[in-house]
Amino acid sequence: MAAGQRTVIENCAIATVDAHDTEYASGHVVLAGDRIESLGAGPAPEGLQDVVRRIDATGHLVTPGLVNTHHHFYQWITRGLATDHNLFDWLVALYPTWARIDEPMVHAAAQGSLAMMARGGVTTAMDHHYVFPHGSGDLSGAIIGAARDMGVRFTLARGSMDRSAKDGGLPPDFAVETLEGALAATEETVRRHHDSSFEAMTQVAVAPCSPFSVSTELLRQGAGLARRLGVRLHTHGSETVEEEKFCHELFGMGPTDYFESTGWLGQDVWMAHCVHMNDSDIAAFARTRTGVAHCPSSNARLAAGIARVPDMLAAGVPVGLGVDGTASNESGELHTELRNALLINRLGAHREAALNARQALRLGTHGGAQVLGRADAIGSLEPGKLADLVLWRMDTLAHASIADPVTALVFGAAAPVTASFVNGRQIVEDGRLLTADEDAVARTTREQARRLARISAQG
């Protein structure tokens, strides 16, 4: 919408996910340009000027848009492979294929990943891309272009690897960068694409892949680069028992202590998974305000374990939700992670007290915004924040007999998305994308997946 033009949404239940968890059984939201102008109980105020659209949202729940905090888009074209492997075996099985990706493949995979998330209520996405084969083209540009065209708010975590098989790492030698090359390319990506403004649609983070695929020097210098450029830092941490064993054998300490020794704890850092964390690790994350991207489906798919999310939240650790790459979460949807986060955490030590429906929704909205460093702009419905919100239809067969709409959204089947707005611009209507041809995206991703499979088979 142009500045000053208003959209009025009325007759809906609203879960604001603000600091007080304010909710309205029947209320309104007024969007003005790219901002939320007002919201509250009952109908919208009379006499509003420049109203270009009114939406009767009877039977709907309005929430902040979902915020995805960890993903690997390129994996969209390698779904359904190595389905019975743990993390290290899975990586060894798939790295030879991933090492042959190129720009057309990455662009198609990004379209598929973004489309699946957006049609399911994601308004802010991120991609941790760390595979840059020699001569593969402008992969970062392809990913950012796909997000721009889809109309989704986006953070690219520009990843890197410099520890290959010959150095004791897992990736093939031709799939890694040099230390100097990785740092230079990361800096160029930040300078070309990062927008630090309040309403930014594209941001960039510095994101060496993991302790077992990057050198200590890449971690240390990467942290220095991020802080010199004023951007956030992201990596994988404490995902598996094998990773913890690796860190003890190679560095003489566990992952959290190792990260702290390289400058990788702080309020500008978030890490994916964090499954195997002891009390001391959680205390260190809480003390430094280091964030966590919790990926329940992927953790289960790879048999990594159950992250101690209730303990992290109780300690004050910022926690958001992540899809993770779709080679370890084939559905690629974040709204299903609300339910999976709640259910899987109830299998842990806290049982039925682990998480409730509203805590799960907070993880997927405000928690994600915190982790990405954007809680001032997104993640809750409040006047002055950016107009990123979702209308979930709750009056169909799947949910109509559940009285509480938030419970219905989290505990029930995946709810239909009637409308999704980013910056006040509608990008989904009645479960279909308005910014892309879903059938064309499906065809392209299938073609590129088959092309990659052929190239990989040829060695």
From TrEMBL:
Top-rank taxon, per record: Bacteria
Molecular function GO labels: 8-oxoguanine deaminase activity; deaminase activity; metal ion binding
Keywords from the UniProt entry: Hydrolase, Metal-binding, Zinc
Domain annotation Amidohydrolase-related: ranges: 61-425
UniProt-listed Enzyme Commission number(s): 3.5.4.32
Matching InterPro entries: Amidohydro-rel, Metal-dep_hydrolase_composite, Metal_Hydrolase, MTA/SAH_deaminase
Annotated protein name in UniProt: 8-oxoguanine deaminase
Organism whose genome encodes this protein: Streptomyces lasalocidi (Streptomyces lasaliensis)
